[in-house]
Write a structure and sequence with these properties.
Number of helices: 10
Oligomer: single chain
Number of strands: 0
Strand content: under 5%
CATH class: Mainly Alpha
CATH topology: Hypothetical protein af1432
Structural class: mainly alpha
Order of helices and strands: HHHHHHHHHH
Length: about 200
């Protein structure tokens, strides 16, 4: 996995700190971890978003979209799911298609990461369960955030294309395959139509 800098948790080796400080240093790894798919498609490191930037984008979109279209969803739960959905990548890495890792192995690595980060926290079991809820995708909130996760990828692909990076069509296709909600599909279609707008 390509990262901006080594894991900040190395600073804490042999140091006794509170669980929240340790968890924050672990979370900080997501700020250092590039989104590997963009790197593999030619986005240079100095322009490549981190996993944490993606997670923030998902949270912002989930907030706006849930308030605009889905007021029946538990807004607090939506935000919490969006903010922690990538915590499995802290130690598991940003595993992408083509990495030759099975879905089962990816889940195992990410679950171990989530458990490692959250088990020390007050209410850590609740965070582990929340991440599991996102992965299972059975609740309305988890289904919604899972789709927003892919929609955000489509938006970022659009931004990159308008910045001059090419051959990102597969990201739009991947996003479309994941979307079931008509409102989100309509937004993705609008994003795709922007591909024909010259910059």
């Amino acid at each position: 996995m390509e990262v901006k800098t080594p894991s900040p948790t190395k600073l804490l080796e042999g140091v006794d700190v509170s669980p929240i400080i340790r968890a924050y240093f672990e979370f900080n790894q997501l700020k250092q971890l590039y989104r590997q798919g963009w790197l593999k498609r030619g986005v240079p490191k100095e322009r490549c978003e981190s996993v944490a930037e993606h997670s923030l984008g998902v949270a912002v979109l989930a907030c706006w979209l849930s308030e605009a279209y889905y007021p029946q969803l538990d807004q607090s739960r939506v935000m919490r799911l969006a903010l922690i959905h990538d915590f499995g990548e802290i130690y598991g890495g940003d595993i992408i298609p083509g990495d030759d890792i099975s879905d089962e192995e990816k889940y195992r690595l990410e679950f171990e990461s989530v458990e490692r980060v959250f088990k020390r926290l007050p209410n850590g079991g609740e965070y582990i369960a929340l991440w599991g809820e996102f992965e299972d995708g059975q609740t309305p909130e988890a289904q919604f955030v899972r789709q927003v996760d892919r929609l955000e990828m489509g938006l970022q692909a659009s931004v990159y294309e308008h910045q001059g990076y090419e051959n990102l069509g597969e990201f739009f296709g991947s996003a479309r395959e994941a979307l079931l909600d008509p409102n989100l599909i309509e937004l993705l279609q609008e994003i795709i139509e922007l591909r024909n707008v010259s910059t």
